[in-house]
Design goal:
68 residues; 4 helices
């Protein structure tokens, strides 16, 4: 059964799911995950924040490569 809604947030969610339907179904049906990549991105962002104001690209590169 379908209930029409005037909620812009719900309308935006539904239109986004329809637009990216292939990506949504692939994300729900495949065994792969981007969890490890997201973890590395979070770690690099943390290192970048820790060096804010005193670090240049070379120091950031060293910290990323040498951190566990």
């Amino acid at each position: 059964m379908f209930w029409p809604t005037t909620s812009p947030a719900l309308h935006s969610l539904v239109s986004g799911l329809r637009r990216d339907f292939d990506a949504v179904t692939a994300g729900l049906s495949t065994p792969w995950s981007s969890g490890q990549v997201e973890g590395h991105v979070t770690r690099v962002k943390l290192l970048k924040r820790m060096g804010y104001g005193r670090a240049n690209l070379d120091l950031l590169r060293q910290r990323v490569l040498l951190s566990p």
